[in-house]
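Please, structure for the following, as tokens.
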Amino acid sequence: MAHGNAATELRVVELASIESGETALVVGPGPGVGLEATAGRAGRAIGVDPSAEMLALSRRRCGDEVELRHGTAASTGQPDESVDVVLSVNNVQLWEDRAAGFAELFRVLRPGGRLLLSSHEKWLPVSRHELADEVAAAGFTDLQTWTWEPPGFGASLAAQLRAIKPLD
């Protein structure tokens, strides 16, 4: 995972344009490649993952620079409107309830906050356009979707999405 997803993780972090005073939540950080890059930019970086093994790998990679907790997209443990950006790479297809996940991410984002999501297009259970419709149903606006081909032999085409929580 660390090797195969690294380019996509780093790209999503770059696209997020995280600033030093912001709080970033990484949903499903896996071994922590994107979380580590996020921690280097954000004032506060938080990772939630349902896997104790992945949390341990993230802790090994990131040390005490990040906050880690057991959780899912649908249950982050974050207070209302407490984060500026949410990142998720190659795990939306594993969420048990995408509608609940998007509702939770909408809840924890501050107004004007942004969601950036990427997944191997071939693993998405719906098209990227249908996924955008699900994100819009949760209340997000300014949706953009596109595909990106990660570098490297055999890399899988990534479906990517950016959305904004509207200002009050």
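The longest strand covers residues 109-120. The chain has one domain: 2-164.
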